[in-house]
Amino acid sequence: MGGTSDTSAARIDELVSELRTLRDARGVSYRELAARITERRIAAGANPAAARVAHTTISDAFRLGRRRLNAGLVAEIVEALGEDATAVSSWQARVAQAVATDPVHSPAPVTETPPPPAVGRTPGRVIAVIVAGVLLNSTGKFVNPLLGDVFFFDMAGTALVAILAGPWAAASVGVLFIAVELLKGQLVDAVFSVTMVSAGLVWGFGASRFRLAASLPRFLGLSAVVAAVTSTIAVPITVFYLGGSTDRGLDGLRDVVSGMSGVNPEVAIGIVNITISLVDKVIVGALAYAVATLVRQTLRPARRLDA
């Protein structure tokens, strides 16, 4: 029996060592891991108070010399470190097998079912989300002219991809738009599509690194930051590349602001752009957050079947 116990401890130490290596490669702190796991649990529908996990609980899972190891928690840690669904399932099975070989120190019965982890970012799902994001952005570009061509409504897909798949997938939506506009010979639209790339990065890193998609108010605040960043890029393009004219409803607003305030047209362009962009990004951010919540709720049962 002692030999079996020693074998179990050795296997657990081996797994913990691998887990340490994975965390070191990702460069994620224990506090950040705890925050990511908490966010994923809340997104999966858990009560915020019950979903919280202490960073000390996470750090303890990386301690060598353990006799017990929570397979479910390890699965959540691995997923928070960016591993796909297949790897997460493999880790959970290996930990459960290692612990099961020790009859003396087998884990106590689980009295509380932990919330399921968030939907895994498999390559197929990421590609599907990116395609959906491109289509959603295209829909916005089509609808906007019907509403006076004042707002943009062309980044709801970018925000959605940022929440569900991270910054680089979100930025790729903008890259695809640039490529499509260039193929169509629409150089001006291609130049402005650069703002989609920057928006994807800001939304994506804000959501994944700073947990600003954990609640709607936080994500709307992040969307306001996106508005400022995109305006910083769009205004110089409008002033220097287009000579101050966009051939859109924004030109009329520019003239109104310039006439009422007495500021020069370039300043009026900046005022109009940041104001419209702020309203626009908050609206599309709210839409994207609602769709992302619906997608996660829809896919959560399928993720449970994979566990």
Question: Secondary-structure blueprint of this entry?
Answer:
Elements: H1 2-26, H2 30-43, H3 48-51, H4 55-60, H5 71-80, H6 85-100, H7 123-143, H8 156-165, H9 167-183, H10 187-192, H11 194-208, H12 216-241, H13 249-261, H14 265-306
In brief, what are we looking at here?
The protein is mostly helical and 307 residues long. It is 73% helix and 0% strand.
Please give a structural write-up.
With 307 residues, the protein is an all-alpha fold. The chain has two domains: 2-100, no CATH class; 123-306, Orthogonal Bundle (Arp2/3 complex 21 kDa subunit ARPC3). 73% of the residues lie in helices and 0% in strands. It is built from 14 helices and no strands. It has helices spanning 2-26, 30-43, 48-51, 55-60, 71-80, 85-100, 123-143, 156-165, 167-183, 187-192, 194-208, 216-241, 249-261, 265-306. The radius of gyration is 24 Å and the shape is elongated. Mean pLDDT is 83; it is low at 103-119 and 301-307. This is Helix-turn-helix transcriptional regulator. The chain crosses the membrane at residues 159-180, 186-207, 219-243, 267-295. Keywords: Membrane, Transmembrane, Transmembrane helix.
Key descriptive features of the protein:
Arp2/3 complex 21 kDa subunit ARPC3; disordered C terminus; mainly alpha; about 75% helix; about 300 residues; 14 helices
Unreliable segments of 5+ consecutive residues: 103-119, 301-307
Query: Measured on Cα atoms, how large is the radius of gyration?
Result: 24 Å
Report the CATH architecture of the largest domain. Answer: Orthogonal Bundle
**Structural domain count:** 2
Provide the CATH top-level class of the largest domain: Mainly Alpha
Q: Biggest β-sheet: count, sense, barrel? A: none
Give the overall shape, derived from the CA principal axes. elongated
Q: How are helices and strands ordered from N to C?
A: HHHHHHHHHHHHHH
The count of DSSP E runs of length 2 or more, i.e. the number of strands, is 0
Determine the mean pLDDT: 83
